[in-house]
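We emphasize that the prediction below concerns an isolated chain of 224 residues; any contacts that depend on oligomerization or on bound cofactors are therefore not represented. The input was used exactly as deposited, without trimming of termini.
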Amino acid sequence: MATQDMPQTAEALAAWIDHTLLKPDARAAAIDQLCLEARVRRMASVCINPIWIERAKQALEGSEVRVCTVIGFPLGANAALVKAHEAEQAVAAGADELDMVLAVGRLLDGELDLVERDIAGVVAAAQGRVVKVILEIALLEGRHIQQACERAVAAGAAFVKTSTGFGPGGATVEAVRLMRQTVGPTIGVKASGGIRDAAIARTMIEAGATRLGASASLAILDGW
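Result of the prediction step, given as a token string:
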């Protein structure tokens, strides 16, 4: 996904947003509402936990809104085979995009080949669907962010993503800028975690983000 100019309208911005609900206590009615909001505002996707894929797919039938789910969430510490199987199951249930958490501990230990193989297994299981690799940047130094981005690209991922939203911090302008510089212009960069209003969203896009993950999507769009 190439970098793009700043969206000029809320309608244009909506196509950049993954409308997100990943709380463990989310219930069916909240998922239905999330899907309705994404459908009405024509957002890029809803981002939900795997148990809700089939329900979201049904709720969004006939719209262009995609169903995004998470893999190895939120810690990234699952075995690689488990992540790949989870990705296979998500695809079978109807997921259009997969946001996977990389093996953070492996990355910090410098086991970069294992990190890459972990990502590649999910990419293979995705069967051509978009895979976004969550780095959890609050746990990483700049060199780790660069290494993670390089290995994600080598493994065939379509996006790198800042954060789960469940870690010690969210997206930062500095990290998004570094991620964009590392992956170049053709790989997507998703800023996620702490994006609560239009002003923050704008700074992330200016830094190089081409997708935003947010639970405050309506507030962002209404303030655009």
